[in-house]
Amino acid sequence: xxxxxxxxxxxxxxxxxxxxxxxxxxxxxxxxxxxxxxxxxxxxxxxxxxxxxxxxxxxxxxxxxxxxxxxxxxxxxxxxxxxxxxxxxxxxxxxxxxxxxxxxxxxxxxxxxxxxxxxxxxxxxxxxxxxxxxxxxxxxxxxxxxxxxxxxxxxxxxxxxxxxxxxxxxxxxxxxxxxxxxxxxxxxxxxxxxxxxxxxxxxxxxxxxxxxxxxxxxxxxxxxxxxxxxxxxxxxxxxxxxxxxxxxxxxxxxxxxxxxxxxxxxxxxxxxxxxxxxxxxxxxxxxxxxxxxxxxxxxxxxxxxxxxxxxxxxxxxxxxxxxxxxxxxxxxxxxxxxxxxxxxxxxxxxxxxxxxxxxxxxxxxxxxxxxxxxxxxxxxxxxxxxxxxxxxxxxxxxxxxxxxxxxxxxxxxxxxxxxxxxxxxxxxxxxxxxxxxxxxxxxxxxxxxxxxxxxxxxxxxxxxxxxxxxxxxxxxxxxxxxxxxxxxxxxx
Length: 492
Ligand SMILES: [Zn+2]
Known about the structure:
Shape: globular
Largest sheet: 5 strands, mixed
Structural class: alpha+beta
Radius of gyration: 24 Å
Number of domains: 3
Bound molecules: zinc ion
Helix content: 40-55%
Number of strands: 14
């Protein structure tokens, strides 16, 4: 067990005199959140110590594992259990094990509620803190009803399901991880190699032949996506699962990008479901291979050969291809462009006149999404984009001050021979805005994106939102990168 590190989920906030009232209240809430986290940790450690006294080594370890991984430079999003209700102790459990199980459930339930209560108070003041507290609540108690509703779930036949899933299940469909949504009665024949095509059964090879051209490909529908592919039904379904994962995390992290404060407050009140699927699905095309991708898209994009995925805002479609060059990071990058562009009214070319760096920066940041055990994580000191940013600034001393960087429009950056270096800086600055001082700039970042995508930004926008002149932010960024470097070197 590593030594207790408090900043871990929530981070420490520097508090300054003379901040506006909301900032002061955010500091108060941040300190309460840290105290709450510490209390939770203490309660778990006490229970673990009791387990050790009883000779229950496995239970002691399990108790400490409940806290989950922590890192001030990463966000951890738990993979939530589908089954509702905590599993009981094994039937042949000893009296001590039964007692341990009951005490652990009590601690988790109590702290889940405490984190949720704090989240509700934080939601008007600092939505990003409210989100982290909601994550802490659901980690502590995955069966907390009100928190489950924040994450879009309701209870259905002993499982946590989204409204969309409940609708499908009620109409007699099931989700199969190979074939996607199917009428229950079809599954057996699918497993036998038959496919339902234009109202009749044909064999899978015939189905694949008919779908070889992307114009007649498979259409895989998921909750928020419609995926057209001519690779295979199974590959379309797998891509859909990845996109839905990204979507779920994106919509929590950037909720204030598309929802009003009033909507978010209502959502956290426990009274409302999150918005349904009223918005049109995002369209994605997944080609069988690179050749098909190049051939189909060359007319729209003459230099398509150098890309391994692309979002075309004019088509409102993201395009990818299967094969050796396929890469999850590119999928998350382009799909992030799509989510920002399509989830609210947006100008056709955000960042065209300036502030283009953040359009790329946020997509580069979302590339870091990855699975680790029972968690998904974003960020991290080992992310290659952040690493490149540190090398450019700290070793090469390459840096374009924000006062100039924010003036660069899309064309300025995309035609600059130093484009790769500019992208590295954009990625580094985005990590900074998300993790600096425990996340004090995270809500400003979301507002910044909101203004850029609605075309209401100027080169001064970011400084106004952070309430600091650019040279000061440049200095903080340099300090942040130096700190991350030290942190990594120390191997903590
Ligand atoms: Zn991009």
